[in-house]
Amino acid sequence: PGTGAGAHLLPETVLSLAGESEGQKFLGEKLDERKEMKPVDGKEAGYVCENFTCKAPVTSPEELGKLISR
Question: Which residues is 15 bridged to in the sheet?
Answer without folding.
Answer: 48
